[in-house]
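Recap slide: Flavin reductase like domain-containing protein, sequence and predicted structure.
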Amino acid sequence: MKSIDPDTLSIKENYKFLTGSIIPRPIAFVSTLSTDGVLNAAPFSYFNALTSNPPLIAISIGRKKGVQKDTSRNAEALGEFVVHIPDETYIEAVNITSANLGPEESEVDLAELTAVDSVKVKVPGIAEAKIRMECVVEQILPLGGTPDQPATDLLIGRVVHYHIAEELYSDGRIDAEKLRPLGRLAGTNYAKLGETFSLDRPE
């Protein structure tokens, strides 16, 4: 067993160990709206559910030299965003949105995705997604780095509306096999759902 002190590693080396170990990671494909009305979209794989009462989700959005990314800045300014669950049918387009564009450019337009109106928030969703969650900002917490240059923003959102494709929905549950979700691995690698199994919890 290799024993390693993270304090002896560079940021990049810690990143490689984390992203190579914590796998597969769910992906949040997040759309936000700038104050100038530009529809931004980007994928993030430091993402998960926090609680169901109320329904809260969290996304870690890295900064560049302490500067917020468009997603964090837009969510903070408007107080709203939409999270989509990427699947096999449109992952190539999601990948295109990770391009480094200026805040005046729309990744949705670049990837030729289809914007669709939301029900409870002003931010449009992406029609190609089989699942999308309209969210309002619960908290945005700067974390890591230094007080002057945080390393990331922890965006915590409260889900205020769900959109689930009819073919996935049955008796209040979502069919994972029909969703065909993707998980993030290290580097440029992704994972499909693969084989699943069940285990009963002990009494």
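The two ends are 34 Å apart (CA to CA).
The helical segments are 11-21, 70-78, 91-96, 107-110, 176-179.
(End of recap.)
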